[in-house]
Amino acid sequence: MFEPSKRNSAVLFLSLAMLAPQGGLRAQLTSRFQAGAVMSAAPGLVPANALSLTPDVRYDSPLLKLAARGSAWINGNAWQFADGEATATVSTPTRHHLAAQLVATASRAYYDQVNQNDQIDAEARVHLVFSQKAGMWLESGVARPWRVAVVSSVDVAGAGAWTQVGGATLTGTYTNFSFTRIASASDSTGTLQSCANQTSNSRCLQQSHFSDVQGTVHWEKAAVELNAQTGYRFGDANDVTPDSRRWAAASAIVWLSRDMAMVVGGGRQPANPARGLPARNYANLGVMFAAWPSMTEGAVPIESRASAISQFDIAAAGVSLERLQVHIAGVESVELMGDFTDWQPVDMVQRGRDLWEVLLPIAPGVHQLNVRVDGGKWQPPPNTPTMRDGFNGEVGVLVIHE
Amino acid sequence: MSGHGIRRGIATLVTLAVIAPTLSAQGNDPLAKLDSASRRVVQALIDSAKTEGLPDQPLVSKAQEGVSKHAAGPLIARVVRTVFLSLREARAVLGERANRDELTAGAAALQAGIPATAIIDLRQAGHGKSITVPLVVMADLVSRGVPRDTASRAILQLWMQGAGEADLMGLSQSVGQDILSGAAPADALLSRARKVPIRLPPAKVPE
Questions:
Q1: Are A195 and A205 in contact (CB under 8 A)?
Q2: pTM attached to this predicted model
Q3: In whole angstroms, how far apart are CA A213 and each of A177, A218, A229, A362, B60?
Q4: The complex's ipTM?
Q5: In chain A, positions 323-362, which contact chain B (CB-CB < 8 Å)?
Q6: How many angstroms away from the CA of B137 is the closest CA of chain A?
């Protein structure tokens, strides 16, 4: 069924998603379960005529994010544990436009009985946030694959930048990979390769490195979400096969109702030499069932950019002047009002990716206030005492001393 | 300029001079956006507060808050009346010496359902200290679901043990976080209250 010379593959993927979210004000636990059918005509890539089950669980809080996803395929009569990934991300709050992240990942990749392996990654990132609309990051990390012809850790270093233009988010990345692998001592013409260490007459250890430059566009409006990406790989012919020099892919999700969407996509995926995985072309078409855009009350969609206010601070900023700060990322506006503004909304000014601030004269005494995000409901800020406002809501209480 | 133009200009100035004070007064009137019936009720309550020597600003502020939150006029009038009655009761409980902040906090505690006897005990245990923050924290705990008696007893005990305002504000925060994490409100309070240090001089530490 799988012709070795065939490069193109077609994947028909029908997925059913069932969301069972739960969560609180500052942290969300979301889970997803997908069931689908997979068909492929590609050489030795994905199993043909397979059914897959993919549970996906995520926990999001301002400082810690955990995600675990796996899939099991039935191909014939036997169930097979296929792809899987578990990730933990620890993030610091943004201070003076800087934030740091530590990311640890354990993953398993499965194309078929031959092309499969496991890997652990550890990565550190430093984010520089110019404004709510743009930022960049630097990253450095190490990965360790198993069951591949790579005998060293894979050093990963890179940088990226992002910006928001209208409803689109544009992202550009540069990533360099460097590792040692077992290679043939000579190339296909019989010419001896450059070897770091000769292990036998026919095999040697070879230093490999290549760099990927990739651009991504994500755009969403109303019921349509579009993703597109393209990339180019730099490196010599020993490390970069011709079929992985350039790639591009796109996908679209069209929500037919709040619970059901059509999914269509396709493109080219480059090889992953560090994991011994070949390049492949793919296409998919499917149906997804999910609760969107409003999931069960108290939870947010998995990739929601708007999050709850993580912190509220107040500090004296002069005679009878107070500096009020709210920490929240991924929102367009934050307003505040209280008895000290005669309950007139005051726009807070953005001072960083997640920092909003306003200076107001507030006399000593007991005061009540509310904040709201993106024109939503008026809420008491976190970490303040609260009381009922009489209007089916709550206010926060400030005690300002002399 | 023609004579007709001059007359028109003078007429415009006179008209502006006549209506400007009215417009200005409306701009400064915090109750301008209330319907006339609700406004009369609220104004009467404000006048009563002034007559009785109660702070009227909390009433004005509550009316402004209701307007900003697009509450209906009759509801705003009812809520302002509740605040007025709570202030009156708070003054009766706390005495004439109570300052505006204590009255405001006391009114909030009473609205939350804290028993008047608990507030009197708090005042007596304070030995002249302001009880604004303990009252604020009591109201906060009740709004988070802690039973009234549990909240008032716990705060009174901590206050008698010398807990400071920072201790109580910290307690409020940590109990709130525990509740968000799934703890039962009363259990969260009792658990966190045990961790607040006793700050009385050694001779006064209860056996």
A1: yes
A2: 0.49
A3: 12, 17, 11, 52, 61
A4: 0.82
A5: 337, 339, 342-345
A6: 6
